[in-house]
Structures are given as C-alpha cells and as structure tokens.
Amino acid sequence: MKAESKLWQKVKKNTPNIIWTRVESWASFGFPDLVGYTEKRGFFTVELKVTKSKKLTFSPHQIAFHVKHPTDTFILAATQAPGSSKLYEYFLVPGSEIRELAACGLAGPPSREPVTLSELERLLLVTLRP
C-alpha cells in the first residue's frame, strides 16, 4: 500500500465525525486528495503529503488550486520523526500557506508544531469557519 493510502486510512479512522470522499488524482489536476463534510461546517478539502524529510513538493496545479481557494483547504503532511524510520509526525497547515510550504517545507514558522492523529478531527473542525 502506498504511503498516502496508509495516511488516508489513518485519517479516516481518527475522524469518525467527518464524512470523507477520496478524490482520484486523474479526476482533476491539482484538486486535493480528500473532500470532507460535516452538517455543521459544510465542505472542506485536504491534500495529503508523505515525506521522509521536511521538504514538500507540490505540482503547479496544486499550488494554483490552493492560491485560488485559500479558505477551508488544508494540507496534512506526514514526515518521519527524527531518529525513527517507522514513526511519523503530522502537520496540519492551512492551504493558504502553500507557497511558503513549497519554498521552505515544514521548517517554516516556529509555531508550526506537529499534531497527533487523535487531535486531527478537532483541529479540522475548529479551524474551519463557522
């Protein structure tokens, strides 16, 4: 199973109150991997990225999508934890920061701290506009 597929399974398992649709990459270039929905918050998207370093790569289409849609879009990055080949750290970043992520990776602002998968659902729902 590919790394992004494994991440998708973890997201689905740890966010039982969000209805998810996984979008196939061939459907539309640059469109995020996941569309989430809750009755209270409506729709939002999540781009999944898995990396062995703090560097993230995005296609020009992915960057264009997030620049054009800066709200209710997120990037969930999983990176190998320092000193471990099996443990991952997770970072949830607003899509509006895609240009900075493309340029600096996850080594950006010091406020960018890893999140736990158990926090993911709460963070997605709190971060969204009411």
Explain this structure to me?
By secondary structure, the protein is an alpha+beta fold. Helices cover 30% and strands 26% of the residues. The protein contains four helices and five strands. The chain has helices at residues 3-14, 60-68, 98-104, 117-127; strands at 19-22, 34-38, 42-51, 73-80, 88-94. A five-stranded mixed sheet has the order 1-2-3-4-5, covered by helices on one side. Strand 2 and strand 3 (42-51) form a beta hairpin. The longest helix has 12 residues, at 3-14. The chain is globular. The protein starts with a helix and ends with a helix.
In short:
The chain has about 130 residues and is α+β, with helices and mostly antiparallel strands. Helix content is about 30%, strand content about 25%.
